[in-house]
Every structure is written in C-alpha cells, then in structure tokens.
Amino acid sequence: MSKRSIIHMINPMKQNSPFDINMALDAGYDILMPYNNVELNEVAGLTQDAIFSRGPAGVKKTGMFIGGRDIGLAMDMLDAAKSAMVPPFEIPVFADPSGAFTTAAALVACVERELKKHFDQDYKGCKAVVFGGTGPVGLATAVIAALQGAETTIVDHFSLDTALQFSDEARKRYGVNLRATTAASDADKARLLSDADVVFCTAKAGVQVLNASVLGDAKKLKVAGDVNAVSPLGIEGVELMHNGEPLKFAPQCPDAVGIGALAVGNVKYKLQQALLRETLESDVPVYLDFRNAFEGARKLV
Questions:
Q1: If 0-12 CB within 10 Å is exposed, 13-18 middle and 19+ buried, where does residue 63 land?
Q2: 25, 64, 195, 274: most buried by Cβ count inside 10 Å?
Q3: Which CATH superfamily is domain 100-264 in?
C-alpha cells in the first residue's frame, strides 16, 4: 500500500494558522498534523518520532513545517529538527513563522525589481527604513535587505529599547548591522524619510503609518512597499494592487513608485506554495528559511 504524505506542523503558540494549514493542503499534502504549544526542547523528540516510524521510503513523503510568531525561535526549532535527523531517516523542514519569511522575501524582491527597473540600482548603497521593523515580517524584511547590502534602519513605534534589542539579535544571529530607532510622531517619520531611498511598511494591519504630509518630506525616495491589506492602508496613496505605479504625495521624488499589499501578497502566495511543494517533492531533505524564500521570490518576480 502506497504511503500517504504527511506534514507535521510545529507551533510554539496555542493555535496553528489556518492560512498555513490551507496552504499545505493545497500544496498537495494528504494529511496535516498540527502540534500546539511546542517548546524548543520538544522539537528533537517530535522529529525523531516522525522519521523513525515510516522507514526510508516513508520519510520521502513526510515533511515538517515550523510556524509561530518569533522568527528567532523558529530558526532555533529548524536547527533542532535538522540536528535530530539520523540519515537515511531525514525529512524536509520549512520554517515560515506568521508567514514572515515568505512575506518579507516577496516584499524585498518586489522592491528590488522596481529599483532595477526604474533606477538601474540594487540594494548596495541604498538607505532602507523598515517601519514596524520589530515585528516578525519587519525584522525578516530588514535582515534580507541588509544581507543584500542596504543600510537598513528598523523602526519601533514606541520603544527605542525594543528596536535596539532586535537589532542586537539580528547582529548575533545573522551577522547584519541594523540601525535602530523609534518614530511615534509624524516629525520623527519625516526625519527618517528625508534621507531614505527605500521604505518598507510592515506595521500592524489597519494602521496608516505614512500620510501625505510625511511623504512630502521625502527627498530621495525611490520605492515604497506596503504589506498592510486592511484599510486604512499603511502608506497613503499606495493602493492594494499597485505594482510599480507612481508614488503619490511625494512631490520631491517625481520618479518614486509604490508596491501595494496585494501585489506583494500574490508573490508571497506563490512562493509559499512553491516551497511547500519543494518539501513534498524534493528527492533530498531540504531545510528552508528566509534565505531560500528570498531566492525563490527573486525567481518569481
């Protein structure tokens, strides 16, 4: 009897994301097994239970997905799962906490495409600002952009200490230097925009971060990307389906363009499907994180 495909969905939170469950099922997995409130020290045991119960043939139809909201913890869980493998009993593992890795990868790749298309430039030498930079999508966005050579600043709405904490973690984990600041007022935001080439808006859904007045202070802005799909949108004038349309309300930057949430989301959806299918179809075990996601997003855009 042919073995059915199974994906074990590891989550340190009390619930697995319905989004991730739908995506895994649509990617072709027959059975989805969610595990909630999983602690880091439990990952190795769960992994070995999964690999030793099916035999070398069965592991080829077995995968693991790591969710949650903390991207550092997700990376630790990915490492723990990888370390628990015992060849030839190995299964693929894909970490995408809160969809942060695939969303960030799609956002950074879409903005990169517009930089090259309109300005014949990549991230090297660019100054990038990530509003909402201490959330999972924001931090992943900042790390990816910094790895591509951007001088990147993460912005927390309330706390400089929080921004500094995440900047320090990024340096230790990923070897990138992120600047850290806070911007609670329009004046703070305008100050940051005045010298930015690229803006990523990854703040909480339904919150307008950059209004027309703030955008009016941008002097060298080239591309602005927003992942907020809930009204009011994160950047005034950047609509959901904008995909390189001229940026409104930035009179000092007449060539600047915007990327909207659904344009990013279209790439993110295809990307997550592709990576889930890779875990199902690959002949060798793969261990996928934000770096693989960015490689895939670049191909898609």
A1: buried
A2: 64
A3: NAD(P)-binding Rossmann-like Domain (3.40.50.720)
CATH 3.40.50.10280 location in the chain: 6-95
d(CA 267, CA 269): 5
Angle between the N-to-C axes of helices 71-83 and 160-174, in degrees from 0 to 180, rounded to the nearest 10? 20
pLDDT tens by residue, 131-152: 999 999 999 999 999 999 999 9
Identify the H or E element spanning 128.
strand 127-131
Q: Residues with Cβ < 8 Å from 44, sequence gap 6 or more?
A: 80, 81, 83, 84
Q: Rg of the Cα trace of the chain? A: 20
Angle of helix 100-119 versus helix 136-147 axis, rounded to 10: 40
Which part of the chain has CATH 3.40.50.720?
100-264
CATH class held by domain 6-95? alpha beta
pTM over 0.90: yes
Q: What average pLDDT score do residues 182-208 get? A: 96
Which burial class, exposed, middle or buried, applies to 126 when counting CB atoms under 10 A from its CB (0-12, 13-18, 19+)? buried
What's the burial of 238, exposed, middle or buried (CB within 10 Å: 0-12/13-18/19+)?
buried
The answer to whether 271 and 82 are in contact (CB under 8 A) is no
pLDDT reading at 115 higher than 70: yes
> CB–CB of 62/85 below 8 Å?
no
